[in-house]
Amino acid sequence: MPQETLMIIGFLLGAYSIVGNDAIQTLGTFLSSNAHRPWWVLWLFGAGVIAVVLVYGWIVHSGDVSYGRLQAIPVPERFVWIYCIPPFVLLLLTRVGVPVSTTFLTLTIFAPKALPAMLVKSLLGYATAFVAAILVYKLVTRALEHRFNQTEGPTGGWWVVAQWCSTGFLWSQWLIQDLANLYVFLPRNPETRTPEMAAGWFALSVVVILGLLAYIFYTHGGAIQKVVLTKTNTTDIRSATFVDLIYGIVLFLFKEVSNLPMSTTWVFVGLLAGREIAIAWNEKHRGRPEVTRLVLTDLAKVFSGLAVSVALALLLPKLL
């Protein structure tokens, strides 16, 4: 099978899986707190942010829409069928609602030697989000969260503006971090290791991503959205605003540290875990065993995804 065909297959599988997995981790609270709005209105907002990020990256970075994240990932001497297996496995895991790290699953097969560095950065991201969530929800938003739980969420006013702005900021930071997981499947310059794509390839990729995002919004988030809905008060637009803002700030900080790809999934899980623990301490509305079970369950899921990533990275090359 021609290399270009395999690249397209890998990109399509990766696009559907990554949009259905990581994008919902990013937009999950936004969808749950705006469930009363038409899906296409929410899609227009998300699609607008994607278009701006992609077009800006393509123009400013001379065709590199990964914002330099692929510079640490070597270009394969020949694109073969084994590179399509990880996004297919990701597709299966996404269908059953496992919030697996797409960074580890899709990039490890291209650069096994980069796994330790990506793992360290992702663990730091988890710890940072975990501690930040505990501090913010324990010390800063304790009174606010108590009031949020006691009152009905607003449907208009400045909270709506605040949440949509925080979501737009978070969505843009996630895209900059995770676009490498998609564009690793498209042709790259072997010397610069960046996808200096022609306008045709770029336009096609944008159409595919926006179309898949429309499907995910139309189905109200799919299976991964259930992970978000199990957390406390995520349907409240005020609580969702704080979740999105903290998540976006953590991703922004790690984006500035280095161009090395990291797992946004681990940041997401760490944030929700710290938030659940802090809220449980503040209001004791959930028993500690229940909160512990939620935290450990989510952590077990991301570690299972890491195990799958390592196994594929070690075993798939042997099949050649």
Low-pLDDT residue spans: none
Q: Return Rg in Å.
A: 19 Å
Annotation, overall tally of beta strands = 0
Largest sheet: none
Mean of pLDDT:
78
Helix/strand-derived category reads mainly alpha
Notes on the structure:
The chain has about 325 residues and is mostly helical. The mean pLDDT is about 80. About 45% of the residues are buried. The chain contains twelve helices and no strands. The radius of gyration is 19 Å and the shape is globular. Helix content is about 70%, strand content about 0%. It starts with a helix and ends with a helix.
In short:
This protein is mainly α and 320 residues long. It contains 12 helices and no strands.
Descriptive keywords:
320 residues, 72% helix, single chain, 12 helices, mainly alpha
Outline the secondary-structure elements.
Layout lengths: L2 H31 L5 H22 L24 H11 L6 H6 L7 H26 L1 H9 L7 H26 L15 H20 L6 H5 L7 H21 L6 H20 L4 H32 L1
Helix pairs in contact: 1-3, 1-7, 1-8, 1-10, 2-7, 2-8, 5-6, 5-10, 5-11, 7-10, 10-11, 11-12
